[in-house]
Amino acid sequence: MKTTNLILILMAVMGLMSCGQLHVVTLYVDTTQIDQSSIDQHASFGQLSGIPNNYFTTNVRKGDRIIWQGVSISNPSDTVKITSIDHVSGARIYAPKSLKRIKRGIVIKGTDEIVVGTIKIGPGGLEQYIEEKYSLDFTVTNKGTFIIDPKIRSYK
Q1: Which end of the chain is more exposed for a tag (fewer CB within 10 A), N or C?
Q2: What is the count of structural domains for the chain?
Q3: pLDDT tens digit string along 85-138?
């Protein structure tokens, strides 16, 4: 009996360790102030001040999942939609696809469109990490389309 319990616990721990993490990357947008000349001042990922959007990095591992979502911080009736995430340079780390729903009908709060990606590769033998630069396109109600270019870094 003791051995059976030990084996079950070991299997449960191994199962949890093999599951990738879920990363939710939220783009916070001051929808009343943003325009094409002030994207960095009025849209961010909640990073520390002084870190521009193009240096914002999401750290992941192979098998992790990422959800990108947009939220208005100034007008709850405005919608921020992540419309696309496109590879710019570096390794192609993830495979994105647009979704309106995640699992079993659960909709991410504050959005009617999100983007989900799964990390497909990690660094090779001698590399500590690999990096991908991507462009994130988003629209704001009655304001148009905006583009920012953060990074994903995949570790072993």
Answers
A1: N
A2: 1
A3: 888 999 988 876 544 444 445 444 444 567 778 888 888 888 888 999 999 999
